[in-house]
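Example is below:
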Amino acid sequence: MEVCYQLPVLPLDRPVPKHVLSRRGAISFSSSSSLFGAPDPRQLSQRRGAISYDSSDQTALYIRMLGACVVFKELFARDVRVRSQVGFEPERRSSHPYLRIDFRTLHTRLGYGSSSDGSGTERRVHRLLSFQRYLHSSRLLRGISQQIPLHILDEDYNGQAQCMLEKVGNWNFDIFLFDRLTNGNSLVTLTFHLLNKYGLVELFQLDMVKLWRFLVMVQEDYHNDNPYHNAVHAADVTQAMYCFLQEPMLAKSLTSYDILLGLLAAATHDLGHPGVNQPFLIKTDHYLATLYRNTSVLENHHWKSAVGLLRETRLFSHLPAEDSLNMERELGSLILATDISRQNDYLSRFRMHLDKENLCLSNASHRHFVLQMALKCADICNPCRPWELSKQWSERVTEEFFQQGDIEKKHKLEVSPLCDREANTIGNIQIGFMSYVVEPLFAEWARFSDSRLSQTMLGHMGLNKASWEGLQQEQTAASEEAGPSATDAENAVAGGSSSKEIPQGSLES
């Protein structure tokens, strides 16, 4: 059965062709099982490629596409209907057990994102159909040769998105617009494009089906209900990483292996991020904190999640086992470097190398360290983007902080620093972040790579910081002007000395 877009109707009186039981595209069956009879008990609830069987309904095929399981029932009926959309797969997409909070619906309850329960489902179904249109138009999974140009975008959006990809190395690349043009598939589309642009697909003999499945699974294992730590952020970091890889100091020194690792690390560096920070996981006794012994909890989770997808898709199964394990270890080393609590350690080591001028990029360990620093810069480069982009990211990350604070208040927990929306503003959070984290890192990066891009980033950061300081001063002035009027209103209420009506909300201000 060559199943790419629709499942054909199979009459009852016809035998099952042999090719039905063989692997086609992203769908595979075990040759030892029968499609119409009871499956082997060993295969019940066991995944086969992108297919799993459910012992409670032997005629249902759970087809995993873009993270959604669509139930195809009644194979023997004349019309094969998409009956329902099952939620997240239990092994990776279950609800997060913090204090019995179901984080799949948390953001909706808090008022962030969609206003109705059905909107998320509608969005996912739309993306699923869009992806299927892409499959139909590109014939990517039908064994096209490597020499044919890879058209990886939806027909509806191909022109505009392709124009953007031609300028993917520009620092003012608008990832929000690109995500809309690719119908929510910015991470898959961008990463695939970059891997192909460098010739890494052919060089490392990557199976196209496995690669595409891996990227789709990566994108869908980001929790897109998170205001900040979602697939769009991963795509933005991947684009920034590409910009850094193009810097003269790196472009002439990095190997294809280094570039492959750098792009994969950027795409997966926040994989499965729950939208809360490490202290929250520790104080709520979350199983991840216990598993990783309260050390780089999130980063270890991102790394292990990425390794899990690599092994599940068998993307590097054709490589020698030792090479594959080394790649997994080095991928982890890059992702673990993004732990912000270890910022000073990496920065001190980077500064020491620059002071001694002993960074030798012909040395593999030195190249790996520079890749770590590049990924760290890409991860927190939002303050160095143009104001229109930087402001959006600032608002998103602050909203994610505040949502965590709302949860902590609701469950009578101590509110984490920067997470109280009543005591903090976007401006003061961003000014502090730039002053103590971003500026020191990018100043050293500019010493290492004194290029036009480095100066552009420092210039944007200075302007953005000044903009936030200006907004802070305006807010302070506005609050000071409102202060006396509020005091007069309170005095009027206490002493009854004024017969004027107090405006609604004056006491609150």
About this structure: DSSP finds 19 helices and five strands in the chain. The two ends are 67 Å apart (CA to CA). The beta strands are 47-48, 51-54, 57-65, 68-73, 81-86. Residues 1-151, 489-509 have pLDDT under 50 and may be disordered.
